[in-house]
Amino acid sequence: MAGCMGTPGSRPGESCGVIGLYGVERAAEQAYLGLYALQHRGQESAGIVASDGLKIQSAKGLGLLTEAIAPGQLAALPGHIAVGHVRYSTTGARRVQNIQPLVVEYSQGIVAIAHNGNLTNARSLRREYEARGSIFQTSTDSEVFIHLLADPEHLGAENPLREALEHVQGAYSIVLLTASELIAARDPCGFRPLCVGRVGEGYVVASETCALDLLGAAFEREVEPGELITFGERGMEACRFAESPRRARCVFEYIYFARPDSIIFGENVHKVRVRLGENLAESCPAEADIVTSVPDSGNCAALGYSRRSGIRLDHGFVRNHYIGRTFIKPIEESRSADVKIKLNVVRAVVEGKRVVVVDDSIVRGTTSRARMATLREAGAREVHLRISAPPIRRPCYYGIDFQHADELIARDHSVEEIAQFIGVDSLGYQTIEGLMDAVPGEGGDYCCACFTGDYPVEVTEEMDKYALESRYRR
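-> structure tokens emitted (474 positions)
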């Protein structure tokens, strides 16, 4: 098991959160509030770009939203159009140049773009444009969109962005700002969520509905896979730029990433996670005195497990809410410290008890091992770990930060071996059938490649190497 230790991160990481506003008074201030609601999707950097119809201005920085952008800076971002972004890097180094939204000036004016997802053909496109003399200012795959948009071959098209999007592959939900318009687009498979809301006479586009709630915006609908929507003087205009070869919504949004109060892919996240816990109790029962969760992402599933099993739910861990999600911390030293201080065991709850612990996933196993050790130290008589996701056996190339198989403990180890490494009396994972039963729609509508190896968009050997290089060049 030693090969599973010492690799960066021990929790899944997701790429970003985006927001866009059109026709909204003081749009930058509203974008700032919306990014608060999306902070869980990235804590590495934040940025806001605004337009008053003539001038485009921006504010960006590293760290949490409040560290990256001081509230006083928002007064210098007037206008009724804005885009915002919180970032966790799955490709591209952690440096100032990579902070989004990316802002560039080309022959058609200034444009700003914010992107959530990963492009699987970014490397080949980048190499192609560099061979033609293009200069890239960042190491993110998001900049590829800009070069495609500015390509003279695409500028002659009726809709240059639509033409550009036909050349990219992979996962992307993007918001793009020009001096006079806001544009939103979602990849043909619909990997990442993106929704539209109305606030007064204006519009809001966001990664999750929790951002709409904070702004008092009414949910209208999702941006459909393969759809491009323009918000401008003529209101909201939608067109299809690509047909969907298949729907491949990231099931990890339900398991871990999205906030429980959000509605994504047509269903409330909390309800799905409760059903995951109920199904887990059916397939992986345990004789125990209490059920507890690893907060916060395990809370809903633990509730479902308790309801279905009849075992009392209690709070065995207390979370320090002043520590961010450990998987999102980009520097290994900071992440290691966070793991130790993020959660504390309530000894009075677990001492002498048989404890079922419900968590959302196991990536490398090191965090779970540390957590279970603290339960033993606090006097838990038995520890039974239950995971609301199936074993993660394959890398993700569409925006989740486990991009190489060597990082995954379940790739080459049995459930029994993983249980021994983590130090629990028993370990039970969700089944694929239990997962599909909990989510809305048909099973084929979701991307489960990290569990099954069924990749909706082809991943080449070049992409596999690129993902590994990107991870270690931070």
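The radius of gyration is 22 Å.
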